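Fill in residues.
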């Protein structure tokens, strides 16, 4: 549902020399569901400056394929998976695009894939997308957890893709929802995804991003803690091989009292040209009294020729908080850990694999879906065995 564009908020420059300047608070970014409201991307914009835009110009151009596609999903009596029209009342309730690729997907999609969760008993459902093809496509997904419901929803992505999409996640009062998005695309796939989540009163969301396959993969979660007592655990795991670009820009907005957030992303890089980007924005708004927030990013560099960009940001508009902090670190193997393992008779190669496995599986173990966790551990092991990258 396109909405009318509004000018980017601006204020008078204090020194009077340069007229008006954009409002700097993270929540004041320009938003629109109409791609025509966004200028052509140059790569100099803050949201695009780390990513090679020339490799997905087709996803920034108008005229994407917005038709429905083949989907497989597990069945459960308390979960429905179907296609809904653009006038569905849930569309636009969790957030709106802040950049051109996201708006292009919003303008282009014909029907939205809707996953609706009811029932207070825990359940797990997997939605698999593996036949998107290699044409430029725009898509929209809704995941709604009704009040007091519980579920784990896994979005499993594989095969070919040139996809830009928006995923709206809506949690009703006291809902408990885990959303896991797994990117195991083919080597040349491009996937640009924006996740918008609205978390209601006393609701709890666990949002997990796992990016392993694809040439360019960017998953940007934007979490709005809208209800008092709302809670988010935002977890991420990524492993970049030679020539891969894996990016995630995380935004958590504490917009209600007594909300809590924990952001923890970990990544490993190996092979020439492997590039990862993590940007973490946390905004504690004026209504966020009693907020408890912490975000961190850790990157482990395994070979020469890689690059990891890590940018944590924290903005606080109220002094009445429990705590807030952020941390970022990028480094190589811990020589003391390697020495300890080798002194116990373990070869250097195996010691390195053990260190990396222990570093990454901390995130895997917190997903809460045993079969998926086991499969991801095997996938990480396969990545480690490919020490020269792809």
């Amino acid at each position: 549902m396109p909405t009318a564009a509004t000018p980017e908020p601006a204020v008078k420059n204090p020194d009077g020399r340069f007229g008006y300047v954009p409002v700097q608070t993270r929540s004041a970014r320009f938003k629109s569901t109409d791609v025509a409201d966004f200028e052509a991307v140059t790569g100099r914009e803050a949201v695009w400056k780390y990513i090679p835009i020339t490799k997905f110009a087709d996803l920034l151009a108008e005229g994407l394929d917005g038709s429905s596609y083949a989907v497989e999903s597990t069945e459960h009596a308390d979960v429905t998976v179907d296609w809904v029209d653009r006038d569905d009342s849930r569309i636009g309730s969790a957030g709106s695009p802040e950049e051109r690729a996201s708006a292009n997907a919003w303008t282009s999609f014909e029907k939205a894939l809707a996953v609706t969760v009811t029932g207070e008993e825990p359940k797990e459902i997997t939605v698999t997308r593996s036949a998107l093809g290699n044409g430029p496509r725009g898509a929209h997904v809704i995941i709604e957890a009704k009040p007091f419901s519980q579920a784990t929803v896994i979005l499993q992505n594989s095969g070919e893709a040139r996809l830009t999409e928006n995923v709206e996640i809506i949690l009703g009062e006291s809902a408990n929802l885990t959303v896991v998005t797994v990117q195991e695309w083919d080597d040349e796939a491009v996937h640009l995804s924006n996740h918008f989540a609205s978390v209601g009163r006393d609701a709890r969301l666990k949002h997990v991003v796992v990016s392993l396959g694809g040439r360019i993969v960017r998953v940007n979660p934007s979490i709005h803690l809208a209800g008092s007592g709302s809670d988010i655990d935002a977890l991420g795991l990524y492993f970049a091989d030679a020539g891969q670009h894996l990016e995630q820009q995380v935004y958590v907005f504490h917009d209600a009292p007594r909300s809590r957030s924990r952001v923890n992303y970990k990544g490993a890089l190996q092979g020439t040209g492997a590039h990862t980007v993590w940007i973490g924005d946390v905004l504690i708004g004026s209504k966020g009294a009693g907020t408890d927030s912490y975000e961190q990013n850790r990157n482990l560099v395994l070979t020469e020729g890689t690059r990891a960009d890590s940018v944590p940001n924290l903005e606080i508009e109220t002094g009445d908080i429990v705590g807030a902090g952020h941390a970022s670190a990028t480094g190589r193997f811990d020589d003391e850990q390697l020495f300890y393992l080798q002194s116990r008779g373990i070869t250097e190669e195996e010691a390195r694999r053990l260190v990396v496995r222990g570093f990454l599986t901390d995130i895997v173990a917190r997903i809460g879906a045993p079969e998926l966790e086991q499969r991801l551990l095997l996938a990480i092991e396969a990545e480690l065995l490919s020490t020269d990258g792809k």
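The mean pLDDT is 91.
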